[in-house]
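Retry 2 of 3 after timeout on previous attempt. Resubmitting structure tokens to design endpoint.
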């Protein structure tokens, strides 16, 4: 292979020149992936996006045009109006469009200086113009007026610096990505909508739709010559696996690949679902969806149809593995013995149900359902009676009756998580390590960054897999608390009688929905207020109050609260629950933006946490007005 790929999202500190400050290039995998798919950025001949390098004026101009309504007007005809640029300069057509439409300008000496760096105020001014702002909209002179508007908007998310700061390519990516997700001047729509892209339910550019515009695939990796089969062997390209920068060597058998038309970027996915092929809909002769592990999946490719239809080799009743594509549909399918001969899994569910065998005869069987250390969903019929939710077991799919064996905890990893070195204590983790945190059958995927500074004991590690001396996957036992449900206990009453003992009645809010609970469980010794509510299915297993930060809070952002006291920085959960107290003393669901605005307005903002950060805790609930 001739291609190489750099770590695209490595953190970089850059010096910003006279009158500026040192600042960091913020990492944003979503931005890099989206802008790459759109053709706004392209890798060099070695497959690198050089994100930590300063952006030149020529490079930024091309990025700007490719994210503008003028992207389809780029001409290959020779043209230049600047003395320091030949008509054959690669950026000449982009610069002509940018200058003609007032997005950028040359210097008073008649030069454009295409190889000079871009300052933050120049970049800010350009994107504000694309959003529809004119000189008359700025209060004051350039650059202060433009920078004030830039800094006080979402355009500056992930970008820091002052007037004169030099923009890195990662800064430019963040600025343009933020512009795509910003409202145009009149507020009628997002900027991305003006250039033909749709928005998702969160009001952000629909990543899947954007990729689909220039996407080929899915392609199933079935041998080591996959690059030759795709015509990539002699090309330089960047690799993203499950949304993260990767290397060609990270592409494994039975991964699913998509690639853009220019073959400069490939996207790789490895999510799999293993279980019994329960049903083909509407029939196996004309299958458009299949049910595996109790869940229905839509087919998204001809390969999937060939494998799962009556003309293929997989039959209802077989144990199979679905290869899941980028949109959650079935990209392909293979026999369960092909990929998962023996797999460790964490049990999330037990039950019994009716299956069909390969002769279309019904049979009733117990089953276990769970998730592998790699994050793959697995279900297996079983005749064993000993498995319970929370067990780690090895399931062998080598043929006949699936064999299940319990696995004991590894008990070999302990220490503090170090996200920069990819270590836990003295144990080295692979850069693409998969980590799953669990609690009573619930599970969530966590990153090594989430574990930075968190103390982990040997008893916290239920399972680990090691390759070439590095841990490649781990299953943890409630290290982060991220499996919990955090809400508000609105009312809590308890009573004690000689006949019935302790009983309780509770109403609580979860995700803005009010629930009621009556119980004889004496363990629910809880008062009204923010709480951790642990569920088993839809049943409440336990409830406990969260702790309130009592020290003075200095600042609040989407990621952390800075406070006085021993713990200075408290991370804010990515699933933070925010509530405001209404005039009628009711809890009303709010947003993090509401909490930040309330704090800046000196309103009362209270932050509640489950544990200190060193023990995996975060701020889980914020209440405005109390």
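Retry 2 succeeded. Sequence:
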């Amino acid at each position: 292979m001739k291609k190489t790929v750099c770590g695209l999202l490595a953190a970089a500190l850059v010096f910003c020149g006279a009158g500026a400050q040192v600042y960091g290039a913020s990492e944003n995998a979503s931005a890099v992936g989206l802008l790459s798919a759109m053709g706004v950025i392209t890798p060099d001949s070695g497959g690198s996006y050089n994100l930590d390098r300063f952006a030149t004026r020529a490079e930024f101009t091309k990025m700007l045009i490719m994210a503008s309504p003028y992207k389809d007007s780029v001409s290959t005809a020779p043209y230049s109006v600047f003395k320091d640029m030949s008509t054959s300069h690669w950026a000449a057509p982009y610069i002509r469009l940018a200058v003609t439409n007032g997005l950028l300008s040359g210097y008073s000496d008649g030069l454009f200086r295409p190889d000079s760096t871009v300052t933050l105020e120049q970049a800010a001014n350009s994107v504000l113009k694309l959003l529809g702002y004119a000189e008359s909209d700025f209060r004051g002179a350039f650059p202060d007026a433009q920078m004030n508007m830039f800094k006080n908007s979402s355009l500056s998310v992930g970008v820091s610096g002052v007037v004169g700061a030099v923009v890195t390519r990662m800064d430019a990516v963040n600025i343009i990505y933020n512009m795509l997700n910003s409202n145009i001047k009149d507020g009628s729509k997002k900027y991305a909508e003006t250039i033909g892209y749709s928005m998702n339910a969160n009001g952000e550019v629909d990543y899947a739709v954007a990729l689909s515009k220039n996407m080929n695939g899915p392609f199933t990796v079935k041998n080591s010559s996959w690059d030759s089969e795709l015509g990539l062997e002699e090309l330089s390209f960047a690799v993203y696996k499950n949304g993260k920068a990767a290397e060609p060597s990270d592409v494994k058998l039975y991964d699913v690949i998509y690639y853009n038309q220019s073959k400069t970027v490939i996207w790789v996915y490895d999510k799999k679902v293993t279980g019994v092929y329960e049903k083909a809909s509407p029939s196996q002769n004309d299958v458009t969806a299949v049910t595996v592990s109790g869940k229905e999946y839509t087919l998204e490719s001809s390969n999937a149809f060939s494998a799962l239809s009556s003309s293929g080799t997989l039959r209802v009743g077989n144990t199979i593995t679905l290869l899941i594509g980028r949109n959650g549909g079935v990209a392909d399918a293979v026999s369960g013995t092909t990929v998962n001969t023996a797999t460790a899994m964490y049990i999330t569910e037990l039950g019994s149900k009716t299956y069909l065998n390969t002769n279309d005869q019904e049979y009733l069987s117990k089953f276990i359902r769970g998730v592998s250390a790699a994050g793959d969903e697995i279900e297996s019929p079983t005749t064993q009676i000993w498995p319970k939710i929370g067990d780690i077991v090895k399931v062998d799919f080598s043929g006949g009756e699936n064999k299940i064996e319990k696995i004991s905890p590894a008990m070999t990893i302990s220490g503090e998580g170090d996200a920069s070195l990819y270590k836990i204590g003295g144990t080295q983790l692979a850069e693409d390590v998969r980590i799953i945190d669990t609690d009573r059958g619930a599970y969530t995927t966590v990153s090594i960054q989430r574990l930075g500074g968190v103390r982990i004991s040997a008893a916290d590690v239920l399972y680990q897999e090691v390759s070439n001396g590095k841990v490649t996957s781990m299953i943890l036992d409630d290290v982060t608390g991220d499996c919990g449900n955090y809400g508000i206990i609105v009312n809590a009453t308890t009573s004690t009688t000689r006949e019935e003992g302790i009983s309780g009645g509770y109403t609580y809010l979860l995700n803005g929905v009010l629930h009621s609970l009556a119980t004889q469980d004496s363990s629910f010794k809880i008062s009204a207020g923010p709480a951790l509510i642990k569920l088993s299915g839809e049943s409440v297993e336990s409830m406990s109050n969260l702790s309130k930060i009592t020290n003075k809070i200095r600042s609040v952002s989407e990621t952390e609260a800075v406070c006085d006291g021993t713990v200075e920085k408290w991370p804010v959960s990515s699933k933070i629950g925010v509530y405001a107290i209404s005039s009628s003393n009711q809890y009303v669901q709010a947003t993090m933006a509401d909490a930040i605005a309330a704090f800046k307005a000196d309103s009362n903002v209270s932050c509640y946490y489950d544990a200190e950060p060193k023990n995996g805790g975060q701020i889980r609930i914020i209440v405005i007005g109390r």
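Attempt log closed. The chain has twelve helices and 36 strands.
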